[in-house]
Amino acid sequence: MASNDSSLDQGMPRPPPCVLLLNGFTGVGKLTAAKSLASALQSNHTPCRLINNHLLIDPVIAIEPIRNKAHYTLRKEFRRLAMEGLNRLSQNKENENKHIIIWTAALATSHLPTPYDDTTHFCEYLDFAKTRGVPLVFVNITCDLESNCETVVKRRG
């Protein structure tokens, strides 16, 4: 019998369901890491969903480009709809909370007054994980300033 190095053939266990929140500033590689992880999970037949925060932010910017109270309220409404849709995945007994939900975000806090508090935003993810009955795994992704600047400049062309 031929040897095969695939993790499935070696009986590699599937990771448990969770909400994986990849956090970091623009250009640090959140989406790249999320796509790579989602691909690896899918190749292991582990059900997952990837929610890139720009899937939710970009429509809001088209509707309300100025980052004011209306903008942040609309962003919260888009997140709520996404979370409700993801929670419907678990209504089917076959899929009951088996998914790993990978979500990208750029949460930060400050002592300066801002129109929106990312601490409250973070609590939305905590509540989402709690509703699903799974842990929230928070990963803060960083990179050195020089690499980050290069990435941001390349994107702007």
SSE arrangement:
Layout: E1 18-23, H1 30-43, E2 48-51, H2 53-63, H3 69-88, E3 100-105, H4 118-132, E4 136-140, H5 145-156
Parallel strand pairs: 1-3, 1-4, 2-3
Helix pairs in contact: 2-3, 3-4
Descriptive overview:
The chain is an alpha/beta fold and 157 residues long. It has one domain: Rossmann fold (3-Layer(aba) Sandwich). It has a 4-stranded parallel β-sheet. Helix 2 packs across helix 3 and helix 3 packs parallel to helix 4. The radius of gyration is 18 Å and the shape is globular. The N terminus is likely disordered.
Structural descriptors:
5 helices, single chain, Rossmann fold, globular, 4-stranded parallel sheet, disordered N terminus, alpha/beta, 46% helix, 157 residues
